[in-house]
DNA sequence: CTAAATGCAAAGCATTTGCAAATAT
DNA sequence: ATATTTGCAAATGCTTTGCATTTAG
């Protein structure tokens, strides 16, 4: 992946820690700070939470990463991508992304509220297909 | 309002602190812990944050209250009401509720993901009508 | 070479817990 | 009368800050 260019684009130094953070987030899709810390320790036994927080924060500030707030869960972080909806499984905690055009909903909201809508954060929760299957066995 | 019955329904004791918490949340619509603490101190100068947290937690557990997670904001609390969407103004931080049927969106999501959807948390952010007006002056 | 990043320790907030005293039922 | 709640103080947990050292460009 070309994290290197992304980092350089924002004048952030390309450090091995940052590359690994981005790589883990890419692999996992969504991850919280603690899980990220545990995974990073495999490659960087002395990495500190301070480093992780600093990096997550600067990369969120530069919109390389996005923070995902999910009810009753620790914040998750993901690579910034095109607008999408989050789906969380309340059984297994798996989070999926789903791309769906919501311009319809957005116009309805603007009409009804007279707000000028700029952004959104949409999370649905339920049971994922795997857990549904396991339930019926 | 009939907070008394609601509390009794969940076998929670009707204390003046709880009534005031519910009354403030009702009045403000959405409030964070700090603001709630400041307002409560007017009537209960010795109230402690521990009491507030304990009450918010038990009332959330009993679904009397709901927690609202909004990007870049402290958690807000509201009285549990019929499903609705939250709209936050990025200029003035005002939060509005908007009731809109989203069954359409929900079926699309279920179709596309094979999840059985149970709940949702939808937050749109933008500029509220008042701030839009002030911007153009 | 120098500006930024890392990692440690300490500080700063937010939230929870334990417990004695007060209160609701 | 009893179980719950309150409010204090202490503890815990999460995140940030300061600073000396290291590293990227």
Describe the structure.
2 copies of one chain form a homodimer. By secondary structure, chain A is of the alpha+beta class. Helix content of chain A is 45%, strand content 21%. Chain A has helices at residues 3-9, 16-28, 33-43, 49-61, 103-113, 129-135, and strands spanning 65-68, 76-79, 85-89, 95-98, 116-127. The first copy, chain A, has a 3-stranded mixed sheet. In chain A, a hairpin with a 5-residue loop joins strand 3 (85-89) and strand 4 (95-98). Chain A is globular and about 50 Å long. Strand 5 of chain A pairs antiparallel with strand 5 (116-127) of chain B. Chain A binds a DNA duplex (25 and 25 nucleotides) through residues 12-15, 17-18, 33, 46-51, 53-55, 57, 74.
pLDDT < 50 runs, ≥5 residues of chain A: none
Distance between the termini of chain A: 40 Å
- The overall strand count of chain A is 5
Reading the helices and strands of chain A in chain order gives HHHHEEEEHEH
The portion of residues forming beta strands of chain A comes to: 15-25%
Helix content of chain A: 40-55%
Oligomer: homodimer
Largest interface: A-B, 37 and 36 residues
* Annotation field: number of helices of chain A: 6
The profile of the biggest β sheet of chain A is:
3 strands, mixed
Structural class of chain A, please?
alpha+beta
* Rounded average pLDDT of chain A: 96
Which strand order do you get reading across the main beta sheet of chain A? Answer: 4-3-5
Nearest-angstrom radius of gyration of chain A? 17 Å
Principal-axis shape of chain A equals globular
């Amino acid at each position: 992946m070309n994290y290197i260019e992304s980092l350089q684009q924002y004048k952030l130094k390309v450090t091995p820690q940052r590359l690994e953070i981005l790589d883990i987030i890419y692999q996992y899709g969504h991850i919280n700070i603690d899980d990220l810390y545990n995974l990073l320790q495999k490659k960087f036994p002395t990495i500190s939470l301070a480093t992780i927080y600093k990096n997550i924060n600067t990369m969120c500030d530069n919109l390389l990463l996005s923070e995902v707030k999910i009810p009753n869960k620790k914040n998750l972080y993901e690579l910034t991508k095109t607008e999408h909806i989050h789906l969380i499984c309340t059984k297994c905690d798996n989070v999926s992304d789903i791309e769906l055009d919501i311009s319809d909903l957005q116009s309805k909201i603007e009409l009804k509220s007279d707000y000028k809508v700029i952004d959104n954060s949409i999370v649905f929760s339920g049971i994922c297909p795997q857990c549904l299957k396991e339930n019926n066995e």
